[in-house]
Design a protein that fits this description.
single chain; alpha+beta; Glutaredoxin; Glutathione S-transferase Yfyf (Class Pi), Chain A, domain 2; 2 domains; four-stranded mixed β-sheet; 8 helices; 4 strands; binds glutathione
């Protein structure tokens, strides 16, 4: 049984959805962001970065959402959430996971938490506008480079599709919305139709349209 420290719709969403895709039991521990529980001394012992999520898997305590996703995909090969090691498909899988977590995610964080990234309050609107532009460009790159789909890796569903769907939710305030792009929109629709994803949305208590 896994223990996942989460907050609804946060970076814990992808690991949570993967756990549900795999079909194993999970104990969900809500991290109360209203009280900044992610910065409490107790939580910092398992996640020194003070961020959500953290996964406990027996003796293993893991932070960083993408790392948790990769670990879960590796641990449950029967769920086919990652292509075989050493294949070209696996290389593309790594590329997209890193692109999502390393290129898009930091700009989404800058967009949502702009004031944290500067000591110059007057520069906040400009920084936010810059992040907005870059995020749109990053999503355009996905749209133009994921091939014929319907998934990130072609006709095979993988953990990358779940991660991208989570990023589309975070980017829903963008103009245009990430999922308004043809291929991304179709992909996200397929992901959201999956029972495991619906189960995750329900378990996290996410109300209303996922992408609006
Ligand atoms: N690189 C980290 C970032 C996680 C992250 O930024 N989580 C946000 C929620 S989506 C968070 O913990 N925010 C609260 C805070 O930074 O205090 C990961 O992917 O796990």
């Amino acid at each position: 049984m896994y223990k996942l420290h989460y907050s609804p719709g946060n970076a814990s969403f992808a690991p949570h959805a993967i756990i549900n895709e795999v079909g194993v039991d999970v104990e969900l521990v809500m991290v109360d962001r209203a009280t900044n529980a992610q910065k409490s001394p107790e939580y910092l012992k398992i996640n020194p970065a003070g961020r959500i999520p953290t996964l406990e898997d027996g003796d293993l305590v893991l932070f960083e959402s993408a790392a948790i996703c990769l670990h879960l995909a590796d641990k449950h090969p029967e769920a086919n959430l990652a292509p075989a090691l050493g294949t070209n498909a696996r290389a593309h899988f790594y590329k997209w996971m890193m692109y999502f977590t390393n290129t898009i995610q930091p700009d989404v964080l800058i967009y949502h938490y702009t004031a944290r990234y500067t000591t110059d309050e007057a520069g906040v609107p400009g920084m936010k506008a810059g992040a907005h532009e870059r995020i749109n460009h990053w999503f355009d790159i996905i749209e133009e480079n994921i091939g014929t789909g319907p998934y990130v890796l072609g006709d095979t569903f993988s953990a990358t599709d779940i991660y991208l769907t989570m990023l589309c939710r975070w980017g829903r305030l963008q103009d245009p919305k990430p999922a308004s792009r043809t291929k991304i929109g179709k992909l996200v629709e397929l992901v959201l139709a999956r029972p495991a994803i619906q189960k995750t949305i329900e378990a996290e208590g996410i109300k209303g349209p996922f992408l609006v």
